[in-house]
């Protein structure tokens, strides 16, 4: 098949949620089909990463987003009632390039990664459209609204409504739609797929071999509980602040020497201030988070705002380090306490589950079972279903004339 792959971020390096899933989908499809990648980058330096992706792509077009234009287009979307978050990507130049590509190549399918990229699909579409929503962005804004002040609540409520409308329009247009969890599939497609059907394609995990390089450094930090994530992302910041200020003091009553290590790029002021709390270490960017996972007693993921699949939960389980998380964040992982995944939704429950997961005999069994968990969470096993749905969407298409569609 010939596939036009549209992504709102260049999918490399695969070091954060939005890029990890897109990278593995691109890698998987590019090894089996002819793929043209059209995407955005936040800087000229980020755009240089396209060189690595050429092994998977026949053609790559990357447009660098410039800040003044992004803000202007977001403002225009606000005035017109369109999603403000989509406005950051509303590039006329990118639209022209995608139309040219559709006119010059007989694609079998257009693969849309994230709802924000649906704005570049002609109406009607010239070939079948397949959409990976990843998660329900509209529900994310609904959760933001619930934890915001008056102005923030008004804005996020408005954004949730406009994004939800765009998601429904795109889902009804698509021949096949995916999301990362059952929660997201229901939020997007409605109860029993009333609005449109959304298939669940969970994320996978790829774990590098242990180098042991950081063992001496981390042995001086142990014992510690761990959180890994991009720290300027509001749900991550909220989770570590909540844990450090509310849950960690309760844990340290039973385990006075237990520390809390926060690993991840771009910690904001509120997160950096957590380092003033006894036992809390904020590292900022690290070259490789996996030594931190391997040396941790447990990972904690106390999300109060949660949508989609949390890669760092899966990565921790894949190296044999148990995780305690909230019930909504557990969705999509597909594992249970047997594999080391514990659930808690209050500070008291969290402390109880931390104590259970710290049992030495249990942790030994989890470590021994890590290879089995890695196999259960492998990317290729999960992406086989995605490819089958794309092939099915292409084969079942009954599309209007190609030239007519491009004239709209």
Describe the structure.
- With 408 residues, the protein is of the alpha/beta class.
- The protein has two domains: 2-204 and 379-406, Glycogen Phosphorylase B (Rossmann fold), CATH 3.40.50; 215-376, Glycogen Phosphorylase B (Rossmann fold, 3-Layer(aba) Sandwich), CATH 3.40.50.2000.
- The protein has helices at 17-30, 44-47, 50-53, 67-80, 84-87, 92-104, 137-146, 150-173, 182-189, 215-219, 234-254, 269-272, 290-295, 311-318, 327-330, 347-357, 360-368, 370-376, 379-395, 402-406, and strands spanning 2-7, 34-41, 59-64, 109-113, 129-132, 176-179, 199-200, 224-228, 259-263, 280-284, 298-301, 323-325, 341-343.
- It has a seven-stranded parallel β-sheet with strand order 3-2-1-4-5-6-7, with helices on both faces. It has a six-stranded parallel β-sheet with strand order 10-9-8-11-12-13, with helices on both faces.
- Helix 12 (269-272) links the parallel strand 9 (259-263) and strand 10.
- Helix 1 packs across helix 19, helix 7 packs antiparallel against helix 8 and helix 11 (234-254) packs across helix 16 (347-357).
- It is globular.
Keywords for this structure?
2 domains, disordered C terminus, 15% strand, alpha/beta, 7-stranded parallel beta sheet, Rossmann fold, 6-stranded parallel beta sheet, 13 strands, 47% helix, 408 residues
Question: How are the secondary structure elements laid out?
Answer:
Blueprint: E1 2-7, H1 17-30, E2 34-41, H2 44-47, H3 50-53, E3 59-64, H4 67-80, H5 84-87, H6 92-104, E4 109-113, E5 129-132, H7 137-146, H8 150-173, E6 176-179, H9 182-189, E7 199-200, H10 215-219, E8 224-228, H11 234-254, E9 259-263, H12 269-272, E10 280-284, H13 290-295, E11 298-301, H14 311-318, E12 323-325, H15 327-330, E13 341-343, H16 347-357, H17 360-368, H18 370-376, H19 379-395, H20 402-406
Parallel strand pairs: 1-2, 1-4, 2-3, 4-5, 5-6, 6-7, 8-9, 8-11, 9-10, 11-12, 12-13
């Amino acid at each position: 098949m010939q596939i036009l792959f549209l992504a709102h971020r260049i999918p490399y390096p695969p070091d954060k949620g939005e890029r990890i899933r897109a990278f593995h989908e691109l890698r998987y499809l590019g090894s089996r089909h002819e793929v043209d990648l059209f995407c955005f980058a936040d800087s000229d330096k980020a755009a240089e990463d396209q060189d690595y992706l050429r092994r998977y792509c026949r053609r790559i077009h990357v447009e660098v987003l410039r800040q003044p234009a992004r803000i202007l287009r977001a403002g225009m979307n606000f005035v017109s009632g369109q999603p403000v978050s989509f406005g950051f990507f509303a590039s006329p130049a990118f639209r022209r390039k995608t139309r040219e590509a559709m006119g010059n190549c007989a694609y079998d399918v257009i693969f849309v990664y994230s709802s924000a990229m649906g704005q570049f699909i002609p109406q009607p579409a010239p070939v079948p459209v397949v959409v990976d929503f990843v998660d329900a962005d509209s529900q994310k804004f609904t959760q933001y609204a619930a934890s915001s002040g008056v102005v923030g609540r008004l804005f996020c409520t408005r954004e949730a409504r406009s994004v939800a409308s765009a998601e429904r329009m795109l889902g009804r247009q698509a021949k096949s739609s995916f999301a990362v969890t059952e929660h997201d599939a229901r939020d997007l497609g409605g109860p029993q797929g009333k609005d449109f059907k959304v298939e669940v394609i969970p994320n996978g995990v790829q774990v590098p071999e242990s180098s042991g390089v950081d063992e001496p450094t981390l042995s001086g930090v142990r014992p510690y509980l761990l959180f890994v994530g991009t720290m300027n992302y509001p749900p991550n910041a909220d989770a570590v602040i909540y844990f450090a200020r509310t849950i960690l003091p309760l844990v340290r009553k039973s385990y006075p020497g237990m520390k809390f290590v926060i690993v991840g790029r771009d910690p904001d002021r509120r997160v950096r201030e957590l380092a003033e709390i006894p036992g809390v270490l904020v590292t900022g960017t690290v070259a490789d988070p996996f030594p931190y996972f391997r040396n941790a007693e447990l990972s904690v993921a106390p999300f109060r705002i949660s949508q989609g699949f949390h890669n760092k939960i899966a990565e921790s389980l894949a190296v044999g380090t148990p995780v305690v998380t909230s019930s909504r964040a557990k969705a999509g992982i597909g594992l249970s306490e047997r594999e080391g995944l514990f659930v808690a939704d209050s500070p008291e429950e969290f402390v109880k589950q931390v104590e259970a997961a710290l049992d030495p005999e249990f942790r030994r069994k989890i470590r021994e079972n890590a290879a089995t968990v890695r196999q259960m969470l492998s990317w290729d096993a999960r992406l086989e279903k995605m490819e089958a749905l794309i092939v099915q969407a292409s084969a079942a298409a009954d599309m209007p004339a190609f030239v007519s569609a491009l004239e709209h």
